[in-house]
Amino acid sequence: MSIFHDNLNRLARRDQPLAEAVKASVGGVLAVESARSGVPSARRSGRWVHSAYDPLREAETWAQTQASACREGETVVVAGVGLLYHVEALRKQLSSDIVVAVVISDLDEFHDVLVARSLDAWSDHILWLTGTPVHIAETLSRTGRPVRCLSYTPAAQADSSFHRAFEEALRRGIASQAGGQLTIALVGPIYGGSLPIARYVKRALETLGHKVQWIDHSVHASSYEVMGALKDVRNRQMMQGRLAEVLSQWTVASLAESPPDLVLSLAQAPLTLPVLEHLRKKKFLTAMWFVENYRHLTYWQQMAPGYEYWFVFQQGACLDAVRQAGARQVSFLPMAADPELHRPLELSPEERTMYGADVSFVGAGYANRRHLFPALLGHPWTFKIWGNEWEGAEDLRSVVQRNGARIDTDTCMKVFNATTLNLNLHSTTGAGLDPLADFVNPRTVELAACGAFQLVDHRSQLPDFFTEQEMISFRDFGNVPGLVEQWLGDAAARQAIAAAARTRVLNAHTYVHRMRDLLAQIGLSQPDRVGAVLRGDRQKETLLTRCAGDAPLVGLLKAFPAGQRVELKDVAAHIRRKGPTATLKREELMLLMLDEYRSETRDLL
User: Fold this and answer.
1) Which domain holds residue 237?
2) For the residues 375-401, what does the mean pLDDT come to?
3) Rg (CA), the chain
């Protein structure tokens, strides 16, 4: 009997449907060749999926590196099949209570494995995962076990889109089930466009039930602006840089007061690279949501190694660039809306007159807008521009409102709601439309959340956000006047499209959705830390189940409200409230001692 049939028989004893599916497949994906060491190796599409010299040693090295992070009770999911040397090595290094699962993205590749080498007894202790990415993710989510995802890149890269779809589905599944309460330190910028987004993020995290330590650096904005008034460029940069260093140390001091589970920064938060490296040595988890165009604001090139996790709203080249700059884990996280602020408003007739127009634009006077907007003058419909940085745009002076003053969020919402047709033109330094067009700006989602009709320049990501029945886009600015006339004359169609866009935002594109995804991504990578909290492992009810039979601990835990997360410091505080003269039990004294030790070792400065 051949190796293939021996392997099929072994597989059939545990998974008959998979064995039948492999038997019906044709193979031919892997080109198997003998390595220098004499064992089979293989290429796929011309690339080696294992070492051409010693696949076994390579697999052992990979497995040793990965095994050190795996924890008891987890399901460790491996992306990348190859000839399974790496899976065999990993299985042999992990304890039996850790489940090792392998994602089979291509049955023909798995067929080739069963032809090339005998799987032997170790393969009886592997969970083989087949089907669509969503089906595999749902299967894992139903187990209730912590999931850790590993990738054997040489074998996984050929099916990278399949594995990305699987991780996306798994992350969404984890996000929908999350019920634990994290403590998150949210570090905002001193000023700028990411400051309001930081506030939206704070509200979303609190809505999800997490505790947010808001480190608000905007209170120092006036000092930063005063330093910006210095005429000497060197002095200005030196003073502003030193203020950023002081605020970075202030952030560390704030974290030392009550160490969080996660430090989440928004773009331009004043955290320096040395401070971030110090936090990593102290075992803090740090993440950055870079809500800026990576081509325009480039300081990420120096900061990339500092954060454990990066989240960006551009894909493709952006993801690659941030990784190449030294970031360890980079994920796509697009912009969103906050329905508490971005919503339909009931405006008075006076407000509609003041803030309304047939066509309005809200935003800064970037070069392409200055060049294109004069084409919207001289038409039978009214046109208004709101926002700052329009100095020198003399031909647009008559339509720029409030002499180009910066407007606040409340005013912006009134303009969105009062305008018949909102124009949304993404900025670029050229004279026309953005030639790269690889992200969707916050205004796109915010307008939609308001139930406001908009015309937006087409973006590569736009179809992932809205269908053609939910958003009208243009690829040539020369078509805009005609589109304005067309849609001004069809109120019913405008209202239907705007309503559909708002429904889509509420269902999929709020900051609550984004924070669920962000935390689930980190939880997937850190199943024994953030993941454990999100699963509710530290909630009162879970802890009571785990310590059932230990009467002293049960008695202490029952003092806390239902559904509350309980940490050592919480139990210690409860004990101390008994007063200095109380007679304490042995277990209570031990817990107080542990809490004192925790306090002594949390010094960050």
Assistant:
1) 183-332
2) 96
3) 28
Q: What is the pLDDT of residue 280?
A: 93
Nearest alpha-carbon partner for 176 in 446, 467, 523, 546: 523
The CA-atom distances, in angstroms, between 173 and each of 339, 510, 528, 537 are: 23, 17, 17, 17
CA within 13 Å, CB half, 113: 26
DSSP state string for 306-336: G-SEEEES--THHHHHHHHTT-SEEEE----
Alpha carbon of residue 344 to chain centroid: 28
**Nearest alpha carbon to residue 420 among 382, 464, 378:** 382
Judge whether 101 lies within some domain: yes
Q: Do 147 and 231 belong together in one domain?
A: no
Give yes or no: residues 89 and 217 share one domain: no
Residue 433 has pLDDT above 70, yes or no: yes
Look at residue 181 and tell me whether its pLDDT is greater than 90: no
Domain boundary among 276, 302, 332: 332
Burial environment of residue 448 by CB neighbours within 10 A (0 to 12, 13 to 18, 19 or more): buried
Q: Supply φ then ψ for residue 541, to 5 degrees.
A: -65, -40
Helix (H) or strand (E) holding 543: helix 540-546
Q: What angle is formed at CA 19 by the lines to CA 14 and CA 20, rounded to 5 degrees?
A: 130
Both 415 and 505 in one domain: the answer is yes
Position 600 confidence tier, pLDDT thresholds 50, 70, 90: low
Per-residue pLDDT reduced to its tens digit, 56-105: 999 999 999 999 989 999 999 999 999 999 999 999 999 999 999 999 99
CA distance 21 to 181: 43
Check whether residue 148 and residue 281 sit in a common domain: no
Are 413 and 543 in the same domain? no
Q: Where are the alpha helices (DSSP H) in 361-473?
A: 367-372, 409-418, 442-449, 462-465
How many domains are contained in the chain?
4
Of 462 and 555, the structure prediction assigns the larger pLDDT to: 462
Return the residue matching tokens 């198997």.
Answer: 32
**Model confidence at 423, in pLDDT bands (50, 70, 90)?**
very high
- Considering the domain architecture, whether residues 325 and 401 belong to the same structural domain is answered as no
Q: 382 with 326, same domain?
A: no
Contacts of 324 (CB under 8 A, 6+ apart): none
Residue 475 sits in a domain whose CATH number is 3.40.50.2000
Q: Is residue 293 part of a domain?
A: yes
- Contacts from 391-394 at CB under 8 Å and sequence distance 24+? 391/365, 393/365
The predicted-structure confidence for 196-212, as pLDDT tens digits, reads as follows: 999 999 999 999 989 99
Whether residues 447 and 568 fall in one domain: no
Query: What CATH number is attached to the domain comprising 298?
Result: 3.40.50
Output the pLDDT for position 604.
Answer: 58
Q: Strand 47-48 and strand 126-129: pairing?
A: unpaired
pTM: 0.83
C-alpha 344/C-alpha 70 separation (Å) is 48
Q: Does residue 491 fall inside a structural domain?
A: yes
Look at residue 1 and tell me whether its pLDDT is greater than 80: no
Average confidence score pLDDT of the chain: 92
